[in-house]
Design a protein that fits this description.
elongated, mainly alpha, 141 residues
């Protein structure tokens, strides 16, 4: 039974996700502490600290959801071979546009066009949600 490169990449991707999630959980636990750190006492008010803490907790919750869906999309792209499929499709598109299929520069530009269309056109709507909606509940600007 051979260990393929794809399995290694998937394993390292998931291992990195688990390690980063562990660090995020530690940071989230630190954010839940209700007391003002000693180094910030007298620098900011308790009210400002509470608003900042609420904002950071909201941001942390959103980060967990965002990273989970990002890892799902990344694993699907690797596992199902989406990038090689896009490379093949971009090569098939060039003759339709009366361009040389053997030209590596044109093939690469076509590939990047297809990939950027995939990234911007097919991502879940919550990727942009944080920029517009997250600051409301905490009141922190």
């Amino acid at each position: 039974m051979a260990f393929t490169c794809m399995e290694a990449v998937l394993g390292l991707t998931l291992l990195m996700y688990l390690f980063e999630t562990y660090l995020d959980f530690r940071q989230h636990a630190a954010l839940k502490l209700p007391t003002l750190p000693k180094t910030l006492q007298g620098v900011i008010s308790k009210e400002k600290f509470k608003m900042s803490r609420a904002y950071c907790l909201d941001k942390s919750h959103f980060h967990f959801v965002h990273e989970f869906f990002t890892i799902l999309i990344d694993v699907a792209i690797i596992f199902f071979g989406i990038l090689p499929w896009f490379w093949k499709k971009s090569g098939n598109f060039l003759p339709l546009a009366c361009l040389n299929k053997e030209n590596e520069v044109l093939l690469t530009l076509s590939f990047f066009g297809w990939c950027s269309d995939m990234v911007t056109g097919h991502r879940p709507p919550f990727f942009s949600l944080f920029n517009f909606c997250d600051r409301g509940p905490s009141g922190f600007q």
